[in-house]
Amino acid sequence: MPVVVSGSLRGISLVEKGDPPDILVVKFFNAGKTGAIAVRNDRSPPIAPDRPWNFPPKTLQNVKRTLISPPASVNTQLVNPKISLSRLLLFISGALLAMGIIFLGFRLATISDPYVQEVLALPGNAGRGYEIFQINCAGCHGKFGDGSVGPSLHEVSRRKSKISLIEQVVSGKTPPMPKFQPDPQEMADLLIYLEHL
């Protein structure tokens, strides 16, 4: 299906005396090529390119000449790609800005969570973290975090921040990992242990 853009060409010297009140040239793009058909602006059907046009010969000459090498005014009147491009760039910029604000809002909400703040303020004990890991995590992640059913947790602290690790452990949003809500000290111990994997 061709993309159609139309615009009035009166005043661009395509229209001659005796022509219908408003002549439109419809410029269309199809399969990478540009073409046009002349139509009337009185809601009558368009004059297809494969049928004779009902306009005087001088007008037809002007239309054909314009279609072969259209003046700049025709192109800017029918289609102004600079406006379209600037609107597209404005829309993309706005969407990226909105996504950034939403992401920042979620991060700030997570950081300001009292549970997260308390966990990060506590000193962890790797020995107790190992015990917590063996009871709650080793069944899926392996005895030493090398992965069996669940993924390997070796160097997980290099891939994820402490906040992301806390969120993943307590949220239950990463199936099949179950929701696990250790108290703040247990979570601090588990974080220290995960840093040593």
UniProtKB/TrEMBL annotation:
<keyword id="KW-0813">Transport</keyword>
<feature type="domain" description="Cytochrome c">
    <location>
        <begin position="124"/>
        <end position="197"/>
    </location>
</feature>
<dbReference type="InterPro" id="IPR051811">
    <property type="entry name" value="Cytochrome_c550/c551-like"/>
</dbReference>
<protein>
    <submittedName>
        <fullName>Cytochrome c</fullName>
    </submittedName>
</protein>
<feature type="transmembrane region" description="Helical">
    <location>
        <begin position="88"/>
        <end position="109"/>
    </location>
</feature>
<dbReference type="InterPro" id="IPR036909">
    <property type="entry name" value="Cyt_c-like_dom_sf"/>
</dbReference>
<keyword id="KW-0812">Transmembrane</keyword>
<dbReference type="Pfam" id="PF13442">
    <property type="entry name" value="Cytochrome_CBB3"/>
</dbReference>
<keyword id="KW-0249">Electron transport</keyword>
<keyword id="KW-0408">Iron</keyword>
<keyword id="KW-0349">Heme</keyword>
<keyword id="KW-1133">Transmembrane helix</keyword>
<dbReference type="InterPro" id="IPR009056">
    <property type="entry name" value="Cyt_c-like_dom"/>
</dbReference>
<dbReference type="GO" id="GO:0009055">
    <property type="term" value="F:electron transfer activity"/>
</dbReference>
<dbReference type="GO" id="GO:0046872">
    <property type="term" value="F:metal ion binding"/>
</dbReference>
<dbReference type="GO" id="GO:0020037">
    <property type="term" value="F:heme binding"/>
</dbReference>
<keyword id="KW-0472">Membrane</keyword>
<keyword id="KW-0479">Metal-binding</keyword>
